[in-house]
Amino acid sequence: MPTIFEVEHLHQPDGWLSPGYLEVDDRGVIARVSDQLTEGEKAQRLAGFGVPGLSNLHSHAFQRGLAGRTEHVTGERAEDNLWTWREQMYRFVDRLTPEVYEAIASLAYLEMLEFGFTAVCEFHYVHHQRGGDSYDNPAEMSDRLIAAADRTGVGLTLLPVLYVHGGIGKPPGEAQRRFVHGVEEYVALLDTARGRRDACAKLQVGAALHSLRAVAPDEAHATLAGVTAIDPTARLHIHVSETTREVTEVEAALGARPVQWLLDNTGLDDRWCLVHATHLDATELAGTAASGAVAGLCPVTEANLGDGFFPLPEYHEANGRWGIGTDSQCSTSIAAELRMLEYGKRLELERRNVIARPADGPGAHSGRVLFDSALAGGEQASGQGGGALVPGRRADLVMLDGERNVLLGHGPQTALDAWILGGTQNPVRDVMVAGKWIIRDGRHPKKAAIRAAYRDCIARITQ
Ligand SMILES: [Zn+2]
């Protein structure tokens, strides 16, 4: 039997319905949206603001266990940056077991749901045992992520990562051996992961190249050909231009800046997500925007690592597509990520409301423009089938509690501004993924068990 919900304020692509009626069928797909019931129909009332669940477009779930553990300097690391942080991350990777990997991912995915994400793109590169031997089941670590997604209820777009070299022209270092595949083995792993979809309705499988530092041009071409042969619509993700050092290294080796190289050599299109893309020149910015690819911005991680700041106003002006990822998990919050983007630019440009343009529609509200952009970019990068509360899309619904202080007294016109820019309290009350309630009244049924397993595992590996 389909279920009809009467949502006090229902987010729609062109505004709000107050109330809006949302009919969800037995498969968890939205069958109908309307502003009234037909005679004899009954609806379950949901108070507050109903918004679509967002897809988190970039996650390394295991890094949740490292959050808050690298915020100090030492004599050898007096000047800290992405590269020195990476050494600490590698030491953490050394201690990961499949059990620990799953426990940390479960906590990270739980938190994402609590903040209103209903899907996550997992950029997954810890494939093997310490030292580099594969597990008896070569997909062991992928399966642990699938299990974590299943336990928490989040939609998962698994992106097994191809990682071949330790840097341009360098063999992998000791810690990096856990990441490394040849192209053929990698394509076989993709095939195995795709086979898991039969048992897991919310699982999508895409592909990822770690970066132009870790994958050489011939390997990139061979992999893209292999992936396209399996699935011509597979999402393709890559880390690119996160730091100026990477831009310099790639330019020296390949004769072009990294994004320019991708534009010239891979036919960038709407299957692609360029993660970070922080350092773009004007030609790369225009080329990326025109390509239809999504820029995968991870604002809090990029701030944490001191990477630099994406040219968002210029890119938005060029109608570039973008979404947000929580990457290293020093935030797992939609509002924190979007706030960092907008406020960072306000500080830099010394003005207010930098992302919204009058052309963005009635009132051009920053919260609405930020949310809707991240919503569309996240759906494009994840291919999860949600992204809007309209017929035919997956029923991923997040109810914001209008009684929380941050939303108290707000109507639909300013609710997203209030959530994202008007306070720090989390107003997410209920979360539905594919027509099923995953969180009700702020409670996830497996929260206590997930927290206990995480605490045990972290205690074991940080002693
Ligand atoms: Zn990343």
Keyphrases for this structure?
single chain, 463 residues, alpha/beta, nine-stranded parallel beta sheet, eight-stranded mixed beta sheet, 14 helices, 17 strands, globular, binds zinc ion
Q: How does this model look, in words?
A:
This protein has 14 helices and 17 strands. It is an alpha/beta fold and 463 residues long. Strands 6, 7, 8, 9, 10, 11, 12, 13 and 14 form a nine-stranded parallel sheet that branches. Strands 1, 2, 3, 4, 5, 15, 16 and 17 form an eight-stranded mixed sheet that branches. 51% of the residues are buried. The mean pLDDT is 96. Zinc ion (ZN) binds at residues 58, 60, 123, 239, 275, 327. Zinc ion binds at residues 58, 60, 123, 239, 275, 327.
The N- to C-terminal Cα distance equals 52 Å
**Largest β-sheet summary:** 9 strands, parallel
Give Rg in angstroms.
Answer: 22 Å
Instruction: State the helix count.
Output: 14
Overall geometric form: globular
Q: Percent of residues in helical segments?
A: 25-40%
Averaging pLDDT over every residue, what do you get? 96
* Helix-strand makeup class: alpha/beta
**Low-confidence runs of at least 5 consecutive residues:** none
Determine the strand fraction and express it as a percent band: 15-25%
Total strand count, please?
17
List of distinct ligands in this structure:
zinc ion
